[in-house]
C-alpha cells in the first residue's frame, strides 16, 4: 500500500530491499486447489462406498425395480413393517402372573432400563419370549427386525423347545 510522505517512501524502500512480497505464486494456489478437490472427491467416494456396503442403494434399487415383490415379502431391510409390528401381542403386565409362571416376580425393559410396573402395556416377542414396554420396542423394531437382547429375528416363528 503506497501513501504519500517520507515515512511511506522509506517503508517501500525497505520492503523492496528485503525482497518481501505478499504476492502468492500461482503454482502454490493451483496445488492447494488440486489438493482440496482431491479431498472432496475422496470424501464423496467413501460416503458412497459405505452406502453401498450398508445396502441402502441396493435396497432402493430393488424397491424401484420390483416394488411389488418387495411389498409382497412384507419385510424391509431396515426394520419390521407396520403390519408385522401390530401383529406382535400386547398385554397388561401383572407382577403376580410372572412370579406364578416361574419368573422372578418382576421384569425390566432392557431398552429403557426401567422396571415394568403393574398395569403397564408391554409386548411379548413371540420368537424369544422377551418382554418390553410397547413404546420402547416399537421404536426399536421400526429400525431393527431383531430382538434387542438375543438378536433373534422377530419375524420368525418361535422355535420348539426340546
From TrEMBL:
It holds the Pfam family zf-RING_2. The keyword Nuclease does not apply. Keywords: Membrane, Metal-binding, Transmembrane, Transmembrane helix, Zinc, Zinc-finger. SUPFAM superfamilies: RING/U-box. Residues 109-151 form the RING-type domain. InterPro entries: RING-H2_zinc_finger, Znf_RING, Znf_RING/FYVE/PHD. It catalyses: S-ubiquitinyl-[E2 ubiquitin-conjugating enzyme]-L-cysteine + [acceptor protein]-L-lysine = [E2 ubiquitin-conjugating enzyme]-L-cysteine + N(6)-ubiquitinyl-[acceptor protein]-L-lysine. Coiled coil: none annotated. It comes from the Eukaryota. The keyword Transport does not apply. Belongs to the RING-type zinc finger family. ATL subfamily. This is RING-type E3 ubiquitin transferase. It comes from Urochloa decumbens. The lineage of its organism: Eukaryota, Viridiplantae, Streptophyta, Embryophyta, Tracheophyta.
